[in-house]
Amino acid sequence: MKKHDFQFLSFDSIKGTEIDLLLERKVPENKSKGYVPAYWYAINLAGTNQTIGTIDLRIGSKSLVYYGGNIGYAIDKKYRGNNYAAKACRLLKQVALAHDMNELIITCNPENIASNKTCLRIGAELIEIVDLPTNIDMYLEGERQKCIYKWRISS
Fold first, then answer.
1. For tag attachment on the chain, is the N or C end more exposed, with fewer CB atoms within 10 Å?
2. Count of domains forming the chain
3. Which residues lie closer than 8 Å to 145 by C-beta, 6 or more apart?
4. Residue 4 lies in a domain
5. Is residue 134 part of a domain?
6. CB-CB neighbours of 25 under 10 Å
7. What span, in angstroms and rounded, lies between the C-alpha atoms of 31 and 37?
8. Domain hosting residue 94, numbered range
9. What tens digit of pLDDT does each residue of 55-85 get?
């Protein structure tokens, strides 16, 4: 799909057995910053309005996506240890597939043990650990390295 043909799809609610993903917003591409379009979801306990975290999916493969990843997630501290991030990634996979994406990049800081475990749990492969370019936002915010995982997905 060509970039100028991009259209958000109707994935407003994705139901799982333990968690649901509820669309919070669709963020259009920001060419001046090099950002790709993205879906942002609240992660809720299934069938409730109890939000336990967030997950987003960035559509595309511009260079910044390599460092920031196609997927970003955060689970509230009191809900950690239940594999909710991995479960949310698996639910989000259908949105990526609908956009003809069959490989996703997920990144995390080397010291983030839980996120590294999440990547391995869903079957992502560690490609490399990279030093961040000095001119990107993550570096300017104090981050220095990223573990780069590739997650090959299929339906």
1. C
2. 1
3. 109, 110, 129, 130, 131, 132
4. no
5. yes
6. 9
7. 10
8. 12-152
9. 999 998 887 899 999 999 999 999 999 999 9
